[in-house]
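Help wanted!
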Amino acid sequence: MIDPVIASRLQFALTTIVHIIFPVMSMGLAPFLIYFTWKEIRTEEQVYEQLRAFWTKIFAISFVVGTVTGIVLEFEFGTNFAAFSTAAGELFGGPLAMEGMMAFMLEATFLGIFVFGRERVTDRLYMISSVFVGLGTWLSAVWILIANSWMQTPRGYEVAMQSGQPIILLVDPIAAYANPRFPWMYVHMQNAAVLSVALFMTGVAAYYVWTNRDTEFWRKTMKIGLAVLLVTAPFQAIHGDAYGRHVADTQPQKFAAMEAQYETDSSVGLKLLAFPTSVEDITDPHAEELFVVEIPFVASLLASGDDPGATITGLDEFDSENPPVAIVFWAFRAMVGLGFWFILLAFWGGYRWLRGELFEDDLLAKALVGSSVLGILTVELGWIVTEVGRQPWVIQGVMKTHAGVSPGLTGTEALITLAGFVGVYAGLLTLYWYVVVRLIREQAPTRPATPNRDVSGPEKGVPGDD
Amino acid sequence: MTDPLSAAVPLSLADGPLFGLPLPELWFALVFAVLGTFLFLDGFDFGVGVLFATRGTDGEREQLLAAIGPFWDGNEVWLVVFGGMLFAVFPEVYATLFSRHYLLMFAILGGLILRGLAPEMYEQRHDEAWQRRWGQAFVVGSIASPFFLGVFVGNWLFGVDGMASIASLLVGLAVVSLTVVDGAAYLGVKTRGDVRLETRSFGYLAQVVYLLAAVAALVVGSRSAAHVDLFSLPTLGLLGVTVVLAGGYVAASRAERHYLAFAAVAGQVYGLVALVATLLFPLVDPVTGLEISDAIVSTLPLNLSSIGAALLLPLVVSYFVVLYSAFSGPVDEGESYG
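Answered by r_m:
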């Protein structure tokens, strides 16, 4: 029978990887929806009403799936990681309770008004509802990331023994909650969510532009998405660069895994591109053996901030076992690579826009269509670097992951639920995709394809309020 | 990090419970009150989901979905808050209880996934086969969620260290019946005409089942659980109040006083969790023998959670007031959801 530790970790990985898609959609859509609502009320232009009504539908289905998959995660701390929850409950439970009371409640109640209440409430209450829903999603991330970042850079605690078991006591809540990782994580995650949604919106709009079925609705969507992409994509790279430095300072083992650096070395180059020359390089990359295109001294420079000769501690130096280096190394490279691709896309689109040719470039449109869900994929890769890179620790330097698993859990039980989640979540993702595609096809104003895009026929379709 | 601010705050908050209040006991009560609020609010969503099976026409089914549409997601968040609070103030109870009833917890989650997803899917397409299937899924999810939750509460109360016992299965049945009463009473407020008339007779039936199942569960459960004292004054008092409220629900509903009937059901739901809490007290987990005072977190996090709850829960209540007033009044047949 399968080891309950392995099964629990796989299950948590699967349920988090699926869940995070939906908060990314809702957190990323929130600022757009607030903007659309505000413009709709201020300008009374039909296109903003259509934009608000349509993207609210995408938000609503994302929120519903996010709710049901989110409760699963909250329960799994107790069901699968009881030892972790018992030991760290003082620090970890509080933020989860705060998330529920401060954020999730705000979001879920005002969402009812925001989705169903356009005709029922005043403009003023409707506008407030859009802001509260958005605020709720962003506050939710505050508490969840406080909990997560504390596991990366734990502060403000003491370990005591209680009836033979280690228990982690909260001694300084400000140090614990405002731990060094939190601001990095929060900014990186929220910007990533907005960037991902901007890519999604731009990609869907580009599809209608490319197939000559665009309307003012889709042109506006594409412009707004691209404008946001132009800000968020470069910002994510600049921020990510500084974030990497912070990781090197606070979690050197993770940083070494990100670079597959086994031996401690100084004046390390940044491996811009790494090419595996054998299967082993993929499954077991060693920086020393890879064929790489590298910029000399830059990894050292990155890690230290100012010293190209700085030393990077290799994985061999650490007492604890290594994280799965291959996953961390390649996920990190894929994330960074995609991040640069988004910047390229943003500048390409910006250039076309500047020249008044935004809707004329078919290659750009195809590239945007192909990239529409890559933002979400990149968020997943980033979280894989964060979470896999922290292994073997569940709380960095304090508690190992295997020690956190529920002691009474059997392999059979864990396998039953793991298999169940594989099936149920495959179905869930399929249904979500089906609904989103269906909403895009049927609820957004498009016009039938015409051979000549200069013919501007009357806009078909009705705004999404029905 | 030893700036004066961060050193000063925890010191004073770590000294003792805020204002000398009996915080562990208050939190014990609050956790059950939040569970009760979930059972009352999402309870009528579940009940409407069960009663959905009794509605034959498209228009009436839409009406039922529209009656809970803006509310159910917010109602479900009370379960999230219940889990979060239990985790925050009784972490060991949260961990041992949830891991001990491993498969049961995922059965609850499965039911909730089905119940949450089904109405969204139901509205996507209007062909018959599709709507029949998602309608069935909605009903199944609406029965499974409260049933497994009830079994969980039964296991907790009676200290069952396995999958379930006869007594905890009876609690499951009792909770499902109570949600049907809740749903029927809610539809009394939110609908008119045939739907209201026909669903209320199911409500009366469910009310009888609830009383029988609850009493049977207590009688059976008390035989194997020493801490469950059926003949204490609070237990008998709560049972008496429940019987009176059950009669009150039927009488008020028949007299077309729908808000009063709904309030009588609310009283029964809170009565049920009060009964569970009273029978447990001072234990918080009979299987491990943990008492409230053993299981409570240390003073500093307890005080912080208390400040958080004291500031936020009144706000949360105000959100619900705004939401329910925005959608006050009955929904009519054919009124759409989504």
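OP: Thanks! One thing I noticed: Chain A touches chain B through 76 residues (CB under 8 Å).
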